[in-house]
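ARCHIVE CARD
Drawer: 12
Card no.: 0347
Subject: one protein chain, sequence and derived structure
Cross-reference: see card 0346
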Amino acid sequence: MNDTGNKDLIKYLSKKAQWVMKETLRIHKIAPETRLASSLSCLEIFVSLYYGNILRFNSENLLWNNRDRFIISKGHGAVSLYPILADLGYFSIDELSKVCTKESFLGGIPDIIIPGIETTNGSLGHGLGVASGIAIALKRRKNDAVVFVLSGDGELYEGSVWEAIMFSAEHKLDNLVLIIDNNKICMLDYCANIIDISPVENKFSAFNWEVRTIDGHNIEELCNTLLYLKNNRNGHPKLLVANTTKGKGIKQLEGDRLCHIKSLNENEINEILERLE
């Protein structure tokens, strides 16, 4: 793509990101039990994957064999994906006004009953293992689809994650891309105050993964790096450390070590939406 085309794409993606942020806030107003801060930190990641020509998908054929798979291991942060799936035709956009109600299949944690969701991941630590199994099956079937996984940094405390890290490297799963939403806050505090595993890049490198680190809110960096990792079949599973801010763009959430479990009231959300408009 030439420079003009790339600039146009980034401008388009930035507008999509702003729209998704507003829709995520509207969903949170309807369903305050949703994890707003966790959803906002990975918003640009979702936008880049789905609108940035990274993921190969077909919303009219959910079981298309050649689709890329996207496993959202940090299921609590997937609310900002709902507007994207609706916008791309996986389900009616009217469903966004019914999240977490008995009339809708859209809950606070995504489920496989939702069109476009590959796995159910409520309990943390399972997504990468499932993705590794899918990746090795695709390779053995000589299917060139890629498996992307989104995990939180706090999720790396789970032992099952490290079993999958070793397994993926042993089997040279270069069709596997793990994205860590590195927002540095888990449920009850900064990750550094719970178990400090930084620099995480060194640990993955020691297990023979290829590692890249970027600004997880920079859409151009996200698109360029994700495309590179997707296409670079060099015998190594891939890690993208996306440095993000939990609750990005919301002053009541940014920098609050308890923002993971914090909800905004209706007046706060209305004020934020007015400012964004």
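Annotation on reverse: Residues 135 and 141 are 10 Å apart (CA to CA). The chain has a mean pLDDT of 95.
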